[in-house]
Design goal:
- With about 400 residues, the protein is of the alpha+beta class.
- The chain contains 10 helices and 13 strands.
- β5 and β6 form a beta hairpin.
- α2 packs across α3 and α4 runs parallel beside α6.
Amino acid sequence: MGEDWPRSPFGKILAVNIRAPEKTIPDFDAQIAACRTGERRVLELVARYGVETILEFMSEIQAHSERLVRAAIAEIPDGCYRGEAFMEDDGSGAEGPFTIRVAVWVEGGGMRVDFRATDPQARGFINVPLASTYSTVRTTIMSILGIDIQFVNAGAFRPIEIEAPPGCLVNPLRPAATRARTSTCYKIFDAVNYALAEVLPERVAAPGFDAQTGLSLAYGDPEGAMSIFSEALGAGNGGLHNQDGADGMIMHLTNAANTPVEAVEIEHPFLELLHYRLVQDSGGPGRYRGGMGLERAFRLHADGVVVGLHSDRHRHSAAGLFGGQPGWPGRCAVERNGAEEVLGSKVHATLQAGDVLTVRTGGGAGYGPPEERALERVLADLREGRISQEQADSERGYRLAGRRSVRTD
């Protein structure tokens, strides 16, 4: 880091107000550079084709997107469709559920997504700003309708009205804590999918773990230098009508890194990764099963390491669709002197040298009854270690023993 870093006034002000500017400032620099690149390329198009032509094209591509979305909505039978999903707690000590309730009204080529029955805003940090509610609803509807990404623009959103009263969980009034909003956004995604499953069974997905597991481990050494490991962990996606849920994936509303173990340990010598693996049996059984969750275990090599975690679904799994079974819930625990303490889904704690922290994300739910899963798929899951023999033979699993004996007879 040279003496001229950061160079911009914005970067200089921000750098003296955050703990790890060498990590944060480059992210802002990248976003600013991306905006400037987009600006430059638009100006290049204007120089080549002229202002009027570019404005006409922008208007027409939005109008074309609007027509595509209205046509897709018009194929849905008119009516009101309802769904709900909930957060277990709000991180402040208040127990839930904190429930997202949605009514999706379809009429002709228009759609209204109504959150008026949603719970009031929470004291804790799970509230969703209105802008995030809009982006979540739009992303969810576009994916269900199957609108290609090149046609997702302002025109595509015109047929979709969103109603979220001020003071509710998805449109909180200031001051409202919103740090863990992404997990609540996933509950919006789930509620809309549940609502439209009745009329679009082959377009919706069974719920995945659908909670962002944001983990951070921070350590300040005696010289005052701060080292922060921060990552969002992948989990299991839900099954679809024609395919299994993906294993260990970053959920569909966000993105994140998948930092190699070696890189983590080199950059953060205060911790050691004991294992990083998929969790057998964590995906919900179904005609198409849910994806598997992940588990990471860390051993701490310094006193005073601060762990922060925001997640959800550590006590309740998402229900499957059309007879599919739920996946496993998540889990966070610390082992110290041979004793284990379960920390919960929203954590701020201080760990000591020798502590072992284990964070597990949950599996996705299954789609369709497990007994309808093709035998060759069950056998492949067994060979690959995705499921155990116990799950293959269980009442809530695939009843493999009975199915094989029937086929043998």
